[in-house]
Amino acid sequence: MTIESAKGVAFDIEVPVAVIGAGAAGLVAALAAHEAGAEVLVIERDPVPRGSTALSAGLVPAPGTRWQREAGLEDSPALFSADIMAKAKDEPDPALVARLAGSVGPALEWLADRHGLPFSVITDFRYPGHSANRMHGLPSRSGEELVDRLARAVEESGIPILCEAAVDTLYAEDGAIRGLGLVRPDGSRERVACRALVLACNGYGGNKVLVAKHVPDLSGALYFGHEGNQGDALLWGAALGAATRHLSGHQGHGSVAHPHGILITWATVTEGGFQVNAEGRRFSNESKGYSEQAAEVLRQPGGSVVTVFDARIAGIARQFEDFRKAESAGAIVEAETIAELAARLHLPEDALAATLAEVEALKRDGGRDGFGRSFAGVPALGAPYRAVRVTGALFHTQGGLVVDDDARVLTENGATISNLFAAGGAACGVSGTGAGGYLSGNGLLAAVALGRIAGQAAGAMGVC
């Protein structure tokens, strides 16, 4: 990834707004810039738009939406902001938190009204750290559907997506970006001039060197993000003197089916399930959140554990396409008794039975265990039981380039790079410095809300 002088460069084509990356952030930015009146070109290194969005559950947290009101749910941007700040121990920039919390609901309603995305709010379970049911998703509850529908909206808007084109060079002059250089699979190169550039190429989760430097606890973990997330935005930003923040921030996940490699919804835990290690014993407070649970899981023998739940919880989890895929793949184990479940998972029966008995007693008494998990109001488990072997994984990084209220990239001395914008994982998010600061949905929050903000600002520059 290089920065070169634009002086004397002969560009092959010119576009008002260029967007690097065709995940949720880039596609939303493209739609917003187009609506602002600018011509837009989206550049994507893959054969089709996918990105980390396609690997996610596709859930976007948003407060005060019409879907919440229709469901009788009380929520507000202020309450959402407070939840974000509490989870990340007040580390994020409060102004950015407020900006995203206030922008994401209108962004979802805009995508629904203008581009036909059929969002609905999840009402039958709540992710840790959220004080209201505010997760919104599409019918399949999958990131694949989200990115596919966004890509369709972009195409129907007449916005070209240039696939199999890897950007490796930015051209700059007088403190602004003048264009970019890309390479095709056959080695041919093109130079594209632009008035505004949006970096929506995510973080550095696929870059083993950067992960080892900034997130050493997960340097050997399964990487469940997109391999193209090599830190391009971060490396370009460094060369441009851009400010960065919270580079150790990340989202892990302690619930990826092993060895199947399928994401298992955390509802399997929050609705009354628990995790045990090879000894059949619990080892942590699972209710803290799935992000910080990744490192806990990886510390267990063999780097994998078993999530125990039941048929009732499986019914809730089945709304997610990933869970249905896991069932089809045979990752979900079924058993009428704990003895049968232990045998099928090669766990010590006595220990597993004792663990279940302890958990159910805590539920009956409304007690808190030695790890700090409260079981008050948590439903009991009952036969038939379900279980899945899972491992911990790194999903995506949360630190990145510092941006202003318009998602414009800032330099280390606080000045702006006038026509350079960042959204999604390319920008510093609102999760603070560690896994524990990640509130469920923070990744797509930054993708959708910052994507629209960046696109609106870049689009305004593109029509000047």
UniProtKB/TrEMBL annotation:
Cofactor(s) recorded in Swiss-Prot or TrEMBL:
FAD
Q: Which residues form the FAD-dependent oxidoreductase 2 FAD-binding domain?
A: 17-435
Q: Which residues form a coiled coil?
A: none
Tell me the organism.
Methylobacterium aquaticum
Q: Name one GO molecular function term.
A: oxidoreductase activity
Keyword annotations for this protein, in alphabetical order, are: FAD, Flavoprotein, Oxidoreductase
Q: Name one GO biological process term.
A: steroid metabolic process
**Pfam short name (any one):** FAD_binding_2
Top-level taxon of origin: Bacteria
Protein name per UniProt = 3-ketosteroid dehydrogenase
